[in-house]
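=== RUN LOG ===
request id: a7f3
mode: sequence -> structure
chains: 1
length: 325
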Amino acid sequence: MTSKAKWLAASLAILAAAGFGLSDWFHRMTFPRPARVDVIIKTNTMEFWQVLVDGVHVAAEEFKVDVRVNGPRTEADVDGQIAMVEDAIRGRPDAIVLAATDFDRLVPVARKIVDRGIKLIILDSGINADIAHSTVQTDNVAAGNKAGKVMQEYLQGPAKIAIISFVKNAASLLDREKGVREVLEGDPRIVRLDTYSVDGSEQNAYAKVMEILRNDPGVTGVIGLNEGTTVGAGRAISELGLKDRVTLVGFDNSLQEIKFLEEGVLKATVIQRPFSMGYLSIKTAAEVISGKKVPRTIDTGSLVITRRNMYEEENQKLLFPFVNG
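=== RESULT ===
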């Protein structure tokens, strides 16, 4: 091949490469990849979280976001959740939505999210650091106030109340307990108000409430701070035949809790809006990624449901949110 032919071949190769690069650049600018958001929830075994994840997926489709949802089997598996967040960071998503299982222990890995330039949205349960772009959750202190006020309505004479918490250091449960205590600690009718943690297990909640009620007939009220504690406590009260003597107030709206409401085992439950919570967490993440200004806190609200108001049309919509099969 002559030098002129070599020069021509080389020039054509350079032009072809440049053309390919230009084409690739044009394709990326014209069809940019969707934003990627990793959602780390507390557990994937409760109805509350299943409904919340439905909201995540609806928002992901609407806002053209690729999502990956992960979470430990139990809320007590803090180490497992930390490992999942570390794995998400290595994948370099545009944002991470985190429902922290522990108020303190998730702080270092949450700081790592921010340090890597990944947007952080806190969902449902916060951490001991003000580093997130936004927090999407129920006002849990206010929700705890509501649970405490319902319990007050049933108090007759000196009363002992047991508060059942799912895990010791989850911010949402700490705030609910705080709200309950704000109301009940000043009530002169209450002679004892104790909190018991059940290590993230409905079965443990059942066993603990059975133990409490068998050992102390003076306990006339139980407050479950989430779905698992409420269902476990309801099972114990039902099996012991104490629904007319022990007032159970709970949180959330699983099918079992609705059954307990209908049977009178559960006197009231403070329900959240998990679908909205999941939906708004992705909407907020998409807005942060696009550079929009978002509220620092988004309160998705709570509502007290009793057997008297559970059949109202608006409450039926909240009690029976659509869950994908």
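=== NOTES ===
The CA atoms of residues 121 and 264 lie 38 Å apart.
Confidence is low (pLDDT under 50) at residues 10-31.
=== END ===
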